[in-house]
TrEMBL record:
Topology relative to the membrane: Multi-pass membrane protein
Protein name per its UniProtKB record: Undecaprenyl-diphosphatase
Transport as UniProt keyword: no
Catalytic activity as recorded in UniProt: di-trans,octa-cis-undecaprenyl diphosphate + H2O = di-trans,octa-cis-undecaprenyl phosphate + phosphate + H(+)
Subcellular location(s) of the protein: Cell inner membrane; Cell membrane
Source domain of life: Bacteria
Amino acid sequence: MSLFDAILLGLLQGLTEFLPVSSSGHLVIAQSLLKNFKEPSLLFDTILHFATFCSVLIYFRSKILKLFTAFLGFFFYKYRVTYYDNKRFLWALFTASIPTAIIGLSLEQYSETLFNVPVYAGYGLIITSILLVLSDRYKGNYKIDPTKGFLVGIVQGIAVIPGISRSGSTVAASLFLGIKREEAVEFSFLMALPAVFGATLLQARHITSIESDQILNYIIAALVAFVSAFFAIHFMIQFVKKAKLSYFGLYCLILGIITVIWL
């Protein structure tokens, strides 16, 4: 992998991780087009996901700190008020992680095949486009709760399939369940943290497989993904508020059809 490849893939990951266009789908397509590109299993994709994970930590640092304090309130009395103020969101994140982990681990054995066949990403993009177009019709008035969180977690688990946008599908699922738009996108970003962290731990055992001449490229790709993701988060939040996800849906539909036909 050249330095150009690393920068391009890092930029793709950063921009598309939080825009509802499927970062995994774009990476699969890009890697199939890059000449002589080789990657060690899913490790490179996982490192890029971890970089975007860090961008979420910084962007939502105040919310995350509040949720962490609320978690402590489950055990310590002095944080109990914070716990009761945030327990609905906190337990929703917990219940969402359960189906995500189960489905994600179940599909892990098929990941190599899915990521090596671009046509699967194409079909996934078409599915994403349908979800995005339909979601613009919904304007929720409810807040997230553990039951709704569990259902959205199922969708996040399925979104491990390349082409199905994790952010797009989970935001759409939240809107279908009547969740307010602002809370839907915030929950979508934060619920990704346990899943990405878990995937990083699973792939960490392959870290020694990185060739010495590729270490710098991996670091640069991660930095590019981190910076671009930070800006993509802000952009996505504004777009969801304005109910214009169908624009991304049209893009996914066109790219999906092109991928299925020509790749």
